[in-house]
Amino acid sequence: MLIETRAYARAGLLGNPSDGFFGKTIAVSVRNFGASVTLYPSPELHIESQPQDGNVFRSLHHLRDAVSTLGYHGGVPLVKAAIKKFAEYCEAERIRLPNHNFSIRYNTSIPRQVGLSGSSAIIVATFRALMQFYQVEIPLPVLPNLVLATESEELGITAGLQDRVIQCYEGCVYMNFDQSIMDRQGYGDYEPVDARLLPKLYIAYNTDLGKQSGRIHNDVRTRWLKGEELVVNTLAEIADLARQGRDAIAGQNLPLLNELVNHNFDLRTRIYTINERNRSLIDTARSCGASASFAGSGGTIIGIYRDDAMLNRLFVSLKKINARVIKPYVV
Q1: Which of 10, 128, 218, 290 could join 5 via S-S bond, C-beta 3.0 to 4.6 A?
Q2: So where does this one cross the membrane (predicted)?
C-alpha cells in the first residue's frame, strides 16, 4: 500500500494578518506549488530525509545559503512533529491505532521563506497521509487547529489559523475567527467562496534568499495583548476588509476589491515595520497599475491586474528587482 498526499501553497487576499487576533480573512490555495508526502508500510517507523535535511555542504557559503532558505533542520522536524501530534490526538480521542509501522518522506516545490506557507503544507500533507494509513477521520474544521498546534507547541513557530484553514479546505475561503465563535466551538466559521468569481489575480515573490518566518508578529502581538489602541483598532479595520471583500467578490465589484487590497497593506504599515525589499515589491507592482498587498508575512505579494498588458508589465518590472510573477491556479 503506497499512500501519496499533497497540500498546496497559500496566499492571503484580504484581512491578513488579523487571523491571529480574532479577525477575518480571505485566502486562496495556490496549486502552482505544493508539498507531497509518500507513506508506505515498513518494519520500523522511518522518516526519510531529503537533501535539504543533510549536514554535508559544498562550502561555507553553501551552508550559509542553505540555512537562510531552509532553516537549520529542513523538513524532517515538521514531519516528526506532525506524527507526534497525530498520535496525541488519537490518544485524546480514545482512537486505538494498530501497531503498524511505516516509512514516510516528503517533497516540496513551495518557495521557502517568502510567506507561502511551505512548512504548514508539509504538516497538512503528513496528517492526510497518516489519516489514510490508520483510517482515522479528523473533522475538517478541527484539522487546522492540529496543524497550528504542531507548529506552535512542538516547534515554537508563531502563526495564525488562516494558512492552515485554506490548506485544509483549499480553493478560496472566507474565515471568521471572532472570539465568541472560537470560544463556543473551538474553531472559526469557514465559508467557501466560489473561485470562479475571483478577479484576475497575480502573485509575485522574492527570488532572493529569504529569512525564516514566524518572528515578525511578536512585537505587534505584545502590543495587542496590552490593549494598545492603535494596534487593536488597526487590526479590527484590517479584519473588516475581508468582510467587505467577500461582499465585493459576490457582487463582482472590481474597483472596490482593488481599493480593499491596497488598503490592507496601507493599514498594515501603521503597526508593522516594512523592510525596503518588501516595500519595493509593493511599489513596483503598484507602479504598473495593479493593486498589491502582502500574501503572508512578507516576501510575497498578491493583487489584481486589469488585462494581459498590465500582467506583462508586472512580469518585466518585477523581474528587474528579482521577483517572479505567477498567475495563481485556484480551484
Answers
A1: 128
A2: none
Angle, in degrees to the nearest 10, between helices 229-250 and 218-225: 110
Predicted local distance difference test score (pLDDT) of residue 208: 79
Q: How far is CA 225 from CA 24, 218, 293, in A?
A: 18, 11, 25
In the structure grid, which three cell numbers stand for residue 110, read together?
513551495
Q: What is the mean pLDDT of residues 73-77?
A: 84
Catalytic residues: 163
Task: Give CA separation, 164 vs 80, 161, 211, 212, in Å.
Answer: 18, 5, 21, 18
Q: Domains of the chain by range and CATH?
A: 3-192 (3.30.230.10), 195-326 (3.30.70.890)
Residue tagged 484581512 (cell numbers): 15
* Predicted local distance difference test score (pLDDT) of residue 212: 43
Whether the predicted model's global pTM rises above the 0.90 cut: yes
Distances in whole angstroms, Cα of residue 331 to Cα of each of 91, 125, 176, 201: 35, 18, 21, 13
Contact 144, 7 (CB under 8 A): no
Tens digits of per-residue pLDDT, 168-191?
Answer: 999 999 999 999 999 999 999 999
